[in-house]
Amino acid sequence: MNVPVEAFVILSMVLFTLGAMGVMLRKNAILVFMSVELMLNAANLALVAFAKQWNDIGGHTFVFFVMTVAAAEVAIGLALIVAIFRHKQSINIDDLHQMEG
Amino acid sequence: MGVDVLLFLVVGALAVGCAIGMLISDNAVHSALFLIANFGCVAFMYLMLDAPFIAMVQIAVYAGAIMVLFLFVIMLLGAEQSHDTTTVTFRWLTGAATILGASLLFALGLPLVIGGFQLPETAGRAPLLRVVNAGVSLVRTQEIAPAEPAAAATADPAATAEAPAAAPAEVVRFSGEVQVTLTGGSLSEPLVLNNVPFGEATDFFDVPAGDYTVQLLRQEDGQIMAAPYPLTLAADSVTTLTLFGEYDFEARKLLKLVPVANSLAQVGNDEGRFILFNAYTPQTLSFIDLGPDQAINTTTRDGATVLLDTVIAADIAFEGAPVTGTYREGTYSLALINSDLEIIHRLDNYTITADTEKTLLLMPDGEQPVPADADPDSGGIQFPAGFTFRSTVLPGLVFDTEPSFGSPLGIGRILFTVYLLPVNLVGLLLLVALVGVIVISRPSGEKQERRANIRRRVSRPLVNVIAQQTGGEVTTETPKLGSGDGS
Amino acid sequence: MFETPTLDTLIGYNLNVALPAIALALGTMILLLVDLFLPDERKHWTPILALAGLSASFVMTLFNLNPAETEAFGGMFVADGFTGFLNMVVLATAFLTVLLSTDYLRRTNTQHGEYYTLLLMSTTGTMFMIGANDLVVIFVALELLSIPLYVLAAFRVTDGTRQAWVLRSEESGIKYFILGAFSSAFFVYGAALLYGATGTTNLEGIFAAVQAIVAGSDASAKFLLLAGTALALVGLGFKVAVVPFHTWTPDVYEGAPTPVTAFMSVAAKIGGFASLMRLMVVGLSVLTLAQGLPAAWQQVVQVIAALTLILGNLVAVAQTSVKRLLAYSSIAHAGYLMMAVAAVGSEAFVPGVANAAAQGMLVYLLAYMFTNMGAFAVVTALEKDDGTGVNLDDFIGLYNTRPGLAVAMGIFALSLIGIPLTGGFMGKWLVFGATVQAGLIPLAVIGVLTSVISAFYYVRLIVNMFLLGDKDSGNAAVGGSLPVRATVYASLAGVLVVGIAVPLVTGLVNLVRLI
To answer: How near does any CA of chain A get to the CA of C22, in Å?
Structure first.
């Protein structure tokens, strides 16, 4: 394997940053959430890369847990988004300004 | 540039490109598809990082379950039609966010840049050790009384040694338990393993790397069973300490245990292991693979005859310590040869199975009934007179290797032992998600009425049904398929 | 057959010290099932069973306060005095929340048994987060703490109507969810970098590895550690609402149902600060840039604490809604707790300050719990069914109609300021003491000054209640049912006991040692 592990970590940093920017910039709630998933994915990639570096399978198990937690979060998040859509017919987070002050 | 590097660059660029595409795409469905492609690229990265299980879980859970759920909700809400004025307009927020993103990348990347793109040196994983109490004995009485029946090796680990006084050689079990003590290395106090029963192996456990002395005592009365045995454990190694025994038939007691360390547990999954005893002939034997021509191949080099065939295990001395060897799985012609390169015994069509350990006992023949647990895989060979080649897989001595890195077995094992608490917490979390989703999405109030309504209008288009379920209005401009307007 | 852990292995995991949390988890699942099968006329048994479960867990915690062997689950969970104390605080929080919720749910037409299940699950998550000794457990317990709160914040959507307050509840649920998911992604990446730098996720393993890295000369490893710490701080900082990660707090606190807000404001802080404290003390207290310096992260934490104190207190002055006022006040209190975390950084050259800061944090959290639960209980009493009626003006003349509630709220306000003889004073005294002991004098000065500033908006509340209003006007406090009043007076008792019985409290926390 000629590819150094650092390369994977750099790739994961780039993906993480892209995800963070997506959360800050997008207005559609579902797209914001997809950007969060991208961030979690980037963290997973970093974990697997470090697991290879340290030859420790604990990194893989951490990834396993992150994936399961992400699945649970997705379920709840999409349920919340559907619930708010029912009432407001819009999932633009700029419209969530009932409370100001 | 190696193929690996090229592949990494291509797939990495694809991953980043898909992520950017997800960010700037107007259509939510396109964004979801870009994200799926990104997940696929990351799964490929996992394969490059020796994580096959995680790669498959990524495809199955992330791309297969989570993104499907996303797409479902996007289509349900008609979100692909939403006009999402995002990064294309130049607002101050875009600039600020870009600056934040760039600074985040800088802050994250700084360690690697400063460190010269080198991750920290790793000390290697702590060595793993396990103890196997095999207790198999090379039994030899002082005289060989001919033709007297002898008890065979029993399969019952709890049985004490039977006393066929005239048995030339046989396998005897030591029924007691052994206490193993490790001293030395960097241990502040000796590591003691109590009650290692016969025929069992302990689990692998972590021991700090270093030089140790192993002492073996009989559990019940503390009698010393063997001379102190030196053992060196290096980082990242996997060591199995097998305890064999020497039994004095006449005195009817186990003389001593002979520990033998081997690193066989670290073999790849496609190899089988052998442990060979020689109690048959005073010659030193070697165990070789004859190769496709099923004959010994030799050549002469510098006046000496050199063996060309692959040697699986060498120096199997008469009544000496057991010798170990590994060989990849398959069907071969194997042979035992002596130091004059003569075949003592050959095994044709011998099948080696991956991940098993066979103990081969070379013993003189007697009128011995074949024991019940004998492995009838000699392949129908005719034994020469006076020789019995008994390949016995002693029950309890077939071990799994340490699972290879990233394999499902390895992850599964560790999930049930070390990571038991997080597994349970994740289970609770999934239950919470289940309850939460139902609570949020459950239609409240006019439950009964809605159900009755639906039953009557089964033939209405699905969109109308869904819209009614969610309480929304049905827009008249539903996108027509194939209209090609890109939305 | 796959070799699952044998009984020996399980006993070796020392499960009995984690029994309070495990028992609560089991109790929650049983509660879910029982609630499913309860007939409609007996649905009021659900909160009673929830209270029973919480009490059972509390009793188990009492028996487990100082076990001989504190490690459980192979090093993943630790059950020392710190865990035991905070377990009791969290269980008391949940107990009081259940008391507050019974009537509130009925009034707002959102009475569902799953509410209690979700609440107890969040409590379980907090309890595991308090005792977590491993990054993996911190993360999973953090999610177990947060995800039920996302649902509970949006709980008014189960009402089915489309009133304005339902929309606010939904919005608060979504905002909390998106920012919570964002922050846990930061935490996971921080944990990944820490794992990459040290090779282990166990906090004690990280401690050993950090010592080795600091003593060595590997610069990239040090920076990986710093980056990991920073990201983990960001992730946990969102949870406890410190500046600049506080923006979600006012909206979410205002929109969520009031008992849920009460629970959120206390439990999330307990869980977040407990993990943060343990991470910083056990894992990273030796993370210095050179020998003899304070921990590298101390400066940043100081700045965060100072900003939080200033912003939380200043913006609170301008609030008119009491719920938002309490939200900003809880941001400010997160700042005081952050001071304790900053104080830990000086452990290297002021030995013992980490334990002093931890003890200060424990007392502060105890007092804060009673105060906040009491204040939100009074707000629940005053809140109308549609969620309005909790502006500062609605408190005018409360002393005339409900003198008991008014006096209680007054004392809670005094405790939030930090007036002596109240629990809040004890907490602030110990935290300020630890900060001074750590040598962070400017931060302590800021803390005292902002406490004085906070008096402004609390005193305005007291003035409204006692001095303004005619003889007969004043809020009817429609929500003041028996459980709510019981919560108010129990919290009042708690605040006064913590404030007055000083030797008792200090004696209890002196047994706590983090390192």
So the answer is: 19
Q: For residue range B91-133, list pLDDT tens digits in order.
A: 456 677 777 778 777 777 776 666 665 666 666 666 667 666 6
3-state secondary structure of C507: helix
Q: Exposed, middle or buried: residue B442 (CB in 10 Å: 0-12, 13-18, 19+)?
A: middle
Look up the ipTM and state it: 0.94
Asked if C156 has any chain A CB less than 8 Å from its own CB, the reply is: no
pLDDT at residue B18, rounded to an integer = 96
A9 contacts in chain C (CB < 8 Å): 196
What pLDDT, in 10s, does the model give residues B402-417? 666 777 888 888 888 8
Q: How far apart are the first and last CA of chain A?
A: 57
Give this prediction's pTM: 0.79
List pLDDT tens digits, range C472-484. Answer: 666 666 767 788 8
Identify the band that residue B252 occupies on the pLDDT scale cut at 50, 70 and 90.
Answer: low
- Which residues numbered 144-203 in C keep a CB inside 8 Å of some CB on B? 144, 147-148, 150-151, 154-155, 157-161, 193, 196-197, 199
- Checking if the pLDDT of B385 tops 90, the result is no
Long-range own/partner contacts, residues C425-430 (CB < 8 A, 24 or more apart): C425/C499, C426/C363, C426/C367, C426/C498, C426/C499, C426/C502, C426/C505, C427/C336, C427/C360, C427/C363, C427/C364, C427/C365, C427/C366, C427/C367, C427/C368, C427/C498, C428/C336, C428/C364, C430/C356, C430/C359, C430/C360, C430/C363, C430/C364, C430/C506
The rounded distance, in Å, linking the Cα atoms of C423 and C370 is 8
Query: What's phi and psi for C512, nearest 5 deg?
Result: -90, 130
B369 secondary structure, DSSP code: P
By Cβ distance, the residue of C4, C121, C213 closest to B432 is C121
Supply the pLDDT for residue B33: 95
> What span, in angstroms and rounded, lies between the C-alpha atoms of B399 and B355?
7
Nearest to C201 among A62, A69, A88 (CB): A62
Instruction: Give the residue among C85, C154, C95 at the shortest CA–CA distance from C119.
Output: C95
Q: Which of A19, A29, A47 is nearest residue C192 as measured by Cβ atoms?
A: A47
Contacts of residue C104, Cβ cutoff 8 Å, sequence gap at least 6: C257, C258, C259, C380, C383, C479, C484
CATH topology of domain A5-95: Helix Hairpins (1.10.287)
CA–CA gap between residue C381 and residue C489 (Å, rounded)? 12
List the domain boundaries for chain C.
310-342+356-515
Q: Which H or E run contains A20? A: helix A5-25
Give me the mean pLDDT over the C90-95 stretch. Answer: 96
Please report where in the chains the tokens 């609390």 appear, as a residue.
Answer: C458
The confidence band for B193, taking pLDDT boundaries of 50, 70 and 90, is: confident
Tell me what percent of the residues of chain A surpass a pLDDT of 70. 86
Fold topology of B3-84: Four Helix Bundle (Hemerythrin (Met), subunit A) (1.20.120)
Which of B7, B41, B57, B440 is most worth mutating to test chain A (most A CB atoms within 10 A of its CB)?
A: B440
Contact criterion met (CB < 8 Å) for B432 and C224: no
Confidence class for position C90, pLDDT limits 50, 70, 90: very high
In this complex, the chains that touch B, judged by 3 or more CB pairs closer than 8 A, are A, C
DSSP-derived 3-state class of residue B412: helix
The answer to whether the CB of C412 falls within 8 A of the CB of C375 is yes
Q: CATH number of the domain at B122-266, please? A: 2.60.40.1120
Domain ranges of chain A: 5-95
Which residue would you say has higher pLDDT here, C317 or C187? C187
Q: Give which of B6, B62, B469 to mutate to test A binding, by max A Cβ within 10 Å.
A: B62
- Min Cα distance B442 → chain C (Å) is 7
- Which residue in the set A19, A69, A99 is minimally distant from C251, CB to CB? A99
Supply φ then ψ for residue B159, to 5 degrees.
Answer: -75, 135
